[in-house]
Write a structure and sequence with these properties.
This protein is an alpha+beta fold and about 475 residues long. It contains 12 helices and 25 strands.
């Protein structure tokens, strides 16, 4: 009666990652939203939808559904005329439709609802393509692939494709998982349980189109100042089948990180990481942060082949500690110069780069007072596979100064340091455990620590 669509329709096969549709509909079920999973093909709004599509019709809690679906245009509110922006209570754009990378049809004309099961959520059917007994390529577009590997291929050797593989049943994009020892029964179980697409091959992928990989040994830095993003990181890795261990200031400063392939530094200010609690405020064991000893230990870890992955506010610490060829453009700017307190921003991604495997070229991030990276010279040892879109970058919310500061700039970079690498994410791709559409950036950064990737992954030309 007050405008907007009559119903929303989600066809799992239309979204880049069908697992995100399942997870979204589970959230709708837990929220008490009514929906039907169709048991038949149907037409709505002049379009045909297959059986297995979800329809969210008009209902009492429709405003809640609309709130999670429709982009926001947040008003330009100032503390006083001509003054700085008035910060919102929380986010100005946050819709799960975008954060989870969902393809949603907004049907405005009323239509007869299809037959089906009300409130039922089911894994969208997977697919096994091709024929052959050499092994299987598991397509990398699903966040559930690590859960599937853990369940149906534990202990098996696997590698990832570094370029598109042409097969009789179609091209398989870069970042697929090559499992030469996976049997047909396990492949079918993997596809059925997790809705994955697999392609059978009659011979191994041609050399050098694969790079060996394995489950990474992950450490998560946990400051005694207790940064909330550290908890999000643990939750996401737990949810998707990747094991981890915490390392505290004392264990980092002890200098032995050789039991790990990669160390995550969650979003936290550089001073908090380096200095930690004041000795006047805490017992000595919990004061001082990483300090000079911790920084030296991190450098030694990377020089010997380890990987550091820093998110959002922590990129300042990583840039300073490793003297990286980037600067944070958002650093030191007033809110009148640059202000994105919590908005959905469009990304451009290189799916052929190891950080972008399994991603769509177009993605979005939740930018919540996050960072913007800028090159500071010739970067022969650095690649930039993720950029903030150069135009039409605001999907939902409010931005001030985005044209001057953010548009077209670097959102993620990978820098070679000694025998290892440092990966910088100017935002948090797993912010609050919500943006499923960028979880793969996190996972790729971790698994990439175990890969010997051939040269040629140059990334995008972010400014």
């Amino acid at each position: 009666a007050e405008g907007g669509p009559f119903a929303y329709v989600l066809d799992p096969g239309a979204s880049h990652d069908p697992s995100a549709v399942f997870e979204f509909m589970e959230l709708m079920s837990k929220s008490g939203i009514e929906f039907v999973r169709s048991s038949e093909e149907f037409t709505a709004g002049g379009r045909s939808f297959p059986a297995g599509s979800y329809v969210i019709p008009p209902q009492a809690f429709r405003p809640y559904v609309v709130d999670l679906m429709e982009a926001k245009t947040y008003p330009d509110r100032r503390q006083y005329p001509g003054g700085p922006p008035e910060p919102p209570y929380d986010m100005t754009g946050y819709e799960l439709r975008f954060q989870m990378g969902l393809e949603v049809a907004s049907v405005r004309e009323p239509f007869g609802l299809p037959a089906g099961a009300w409130g039922d959520v089911a894994v969208a059917p997977g697919e096994i393509r091709g024929e052959g007994e050499a092994g299987f390529l598991v397509h990398g577009n699903s966040n559930w692939v690590y859960r599937a590997l853990r369940a149906h291929a534990p202990g098996q050797d696997w590698s990832r494709t570094t370029r598109s593989i042409a097969t009789p049943s179609g091209d398989v994009p870069p970042g697929a998982f090559w499992l030469p020892s996976l049997g047909s029964a396990a492949a079918r179980a993997m596809s059925d349980e997790f809705g994955l697409t697999l392609t059978a091959l009659s011979e191994r992928p041609p050399s050098p189109s694969t790079a060996s990989a394995r489950v990474p040994r992950i450490a998560i830095y946990r400051s005694y100042q207790a940064a909330m993003p550290e908890g999000w990181t643990r939750w996401v890795l737990d949810s998707y089948g990747l094991e981890w261990e915490n390392v505290w200031d004392t264990s980092v400063k002890a200098g032995d990180l050789s039991n790990y392939d990669v160390l995550i530094i969650p979003s936290q200010g550089a001073r908090a990481i380096a200095a930690g609690h004041s000795p006047d405020a805490m017992p000595a064991a919990y004061a001082g942060g990483l300090g000079a000893e911790g920084a030296a230990a991190l450098k030694a870890f990377v020089d010997s082949g380890g990987r550091i992955v820093a998110f959002d506010q922590a990129v300042d610490y990583a840039i300073e500690t490793f003297d990286l060829p980037f600067r944070n453009r958002a650093s030191g700017l007033s809110s009148q110069e640059f202000f994105i307190p919590g908005s959905i921003i469009r990304l451009e991604v290189d799916p052929g780069h190891p950080l972008g495997y399994g991603m769509s070229e177009d993605a979005v991030s939740l930018f919540a007072r996050s960072q913007v990276l800028e090159r500071t010279g010739t970067l022969s040892d650095a690649t930039t596979p993720v950029c903030y879109a150069s135009s039409d970058y605001l999907v939902s919310g409010w931005t001030l100064g985005g044209d001057e500061v953010l548009a077209g700039r670097t959102a993620a970079a990978q820098v070679q340091v000694g025998a290892g690498t440092v990966v910088l994410f100017a935002f948090t791709p797993h912010f609050r455990g919500q943006p499923r559409n960028t979880f793969k950036l996190l996972f790729n950064a971790l698994v990439g620590s175990t890969m010997d990737v051939p040269s040629g992954a140059s990334g995008l030309n972010c400014s």
